[in-house]
């Protein structure tokens, strides 16, 4: 198969998916194919999507909650019709290595969900793959050390090169059927993550006293989810738009972005109070019956949870302005001692612009 052009649209928090996409574009260039990299975050208008009229479109992004991030799903839904154009999908996932034993991540439905949307849009999908890169979920665990991440990255490069070469040679490659089956079994978890989980995670971020108010996190957030609040000493405020990609946490020059674990426990407790039961009981006989009861109760619960997240985060934001309470939040969370992670060769600026 002689492709004349390759375009890869990527989403990346801490540089893993960017790096994988960059390896693939480099391989395209080595084969004499015009190859471009374009961040999904910059695809704001439909005309921005799929820039470059590439004959082969690649979509590369991280796995979140065993599926594709909402940001990528929305991008795929907004793509113009494929009209038979070739495409491939790569979901990077959380590889790790403990005592020299490598452990794979689990992309679940991430790759095939985006592939399905592409097929429904008229693309001819040539390949799907999950690719282990160092786990970047540094809100949950410390970042991998340079030896372990280097090991995982080297293996990923070999795998990514082999995959793109076979696609460019016209072969098809559909990997990750077992993760897909597991992902389908875990789809309630993925749905829960997409609808509620990501809002929950975004509401746990705060800036410690080490924050200088430089604004880098707000400028470089791929979905512009951070607002700098305050005139004298501006502080980042995380809005609901946050995709929990970990970029702000991984790249803050002062390691000032923290995730409050004690606050997570409080928020979980508050969000799971049976408020819908209380309201429906109060309504007595005028409460809806039968199937309506389920819908009304779900709507009440969902609205209540979002309300709790919103109010609680506002309270957290106000409290951490008080230096003593900021210190309390900072020293009671594990992220304060966690090593940060971003893909070692990827600078923030690399992910913000189009690369030809
Ligand atoms: C909020 C969040 C959820 C994640 N969920 C999963 C998951 O379900 N399965 C998995 O294998 N990796 C998961 N990961 C790990 C990332 O997908 C993986 O490290 C990826 O390579 C990060 O790429 P990026 O640096 O381009 O964002 C998750 C990471 C984050 C931050
Ligand atoms: S959290 Fe970090 S990147 Fe964001 S404003 Fe503070 S110092 Fe700058
Ligand atoms: S606020 Fe931070 S974690 Fe959330 S989307 Fe922006 S850069 Fe990613």
UniProtKB/TrEMBL annotation:
Taxonomic superkingdom: Bacteria
Coiled coil: none
SUPFAM superfamilies: 4Fe-4S ferredoxins
InterPro entries: 4Fe4S_Fe-S-bd, 4Fe4S_Fe_S_CS, EFR1-like
PROSITE patterns: 4FE4S_FER_1, 4FE4S_FER_2
Domain 4Fe-4S ferredoxin-type intervals: 202-231, 234-262
GO MF, one annotated term: metal ion binding
Record has Membrane as a keyword: yes
Residues that span the membrane, as ranges: 177-196, 263-280, 292-320
Keywords noted in UniProt: Iron, Iron-sulfur, Membrane, Metal-binding, Transmembrane, Transmembrane helix
NCBIfam families documented for this protein: ferrodoxin_EFR1
Protein name, entry field: 4Fe-4S ferredoxin-type domain-containing protein
Organism expressing this protein natively: Desulfitobacterium hafniense (strain Y51)
